[in-house]
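Trying the structure run again after the queue cleared.
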Amino acid sequence: MTYRYTLELIAGMAVVAFCVLFLYTSATMSGAEFAGSDNVGSALIAELSGTTVENFQPIIPQWEPPSGEIEACLFALQAAVGGILVGMVFGFWYGQARGKIAE
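Done. Tokens:
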């Protein structure tokens, strides 16, 4: 017996498995604090050098968003614009290839 939608079933099972894994790990690590590689690296440098990283002052001050939500929104906007540009490039290449085939 062959299934008509075998690939769709496999993809659906993979999505469900990923969701279950994500929910399980987030439920078991509810008290854990997230620390990115920047925090870990800065702490390690400060520990090894004996100085604190906060003493460093950049020449050009950087703007800090007022909240983490705004920072995440700006990152998502940047990712969306980048995705649109990459899609446009691939679409252009696809159109060029189809134009050569039609000639």
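The helical segments are 6-28, 37-49, 68-102. Worth checking whether this holds up in the mutant runs.
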